[in-house]
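Quick one: structure for this chain?
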Amino acid sequence: MDRRSFIRGGALAGAGAAALASPAVAQERITWRMVTTWPKNFPGLGVGAQRMADRITAASGGRLTVQVYAAGEMVPPLQSLDAVIDGTAEMSHGAAYYWQNKSTALSYFTGVPYGMTSSELAAWVQHLGGQELWDEVYDQFGVQGFLSGNTSTQAGGWFRDELTGLDSLKGVRFRTPGLGGRVWEKLGATVTNMAAGEIFQALQSGALDAAEFVGPYNDLALGFYQVAKNYYFPSFVEPGLATELVVDKAKFQALPDDLQAIVRDVCQAEYDTVSADFIANDPRALK
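Got it. Here's what it folds into:
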């Protein structure tokens, strides 16, 4: 065999070995839809949902691409969890206490009166059995929840009229959700829940006398101060309020292990990032 034939033959053999070493099938690319309860580009929360989707997409190298649908773009905001349960979407971004009509226990994974601060809630869920209890509740619906953000201590709400005592709460039409809302009902208020984008119009029209949403950062953006002039802070019902990412459990468990880890790790990162965002911007907005 001459020298050129040997070199040419070796090159072909090397190319063949390289081809055999390459994966036979390209890695699957998956696109998931995330519906949210928040308006598009809403400070802290809507921005956080979009950032979470972008982080998952980037960290997975596009193998798991998350497309975000803001409140009302695919489903009404307070039907976001149902969209995951019925398969309309693979993910939802909201607050677990919005679904207390399905299980009152879900309020504990958002915030309850005189409950946990943001750091205490994270400790409970991550290290003290909270996640296991949460899984038990959501297993009934075929979904899984992860902490996805925290707004820190929330405000008590905006009221048209000054509160001078318990009697001044009688019959007040008040937007406030969760177990905290039930406390306000016991104090005499008429309580309802509605999505962020609907509250200002209800206040303006007189359908509501008071509203509580999050705190100064979000409340400034929603414009409540233009209608209701009495602001009470802090709230006794929400000392550290968490948001959640909910995923279709069967589809999540079908993901490769590394993509599952990316979703979990991005949720943890966003819990810290969103909390810092509110701690930094609430005082600015209040001023």
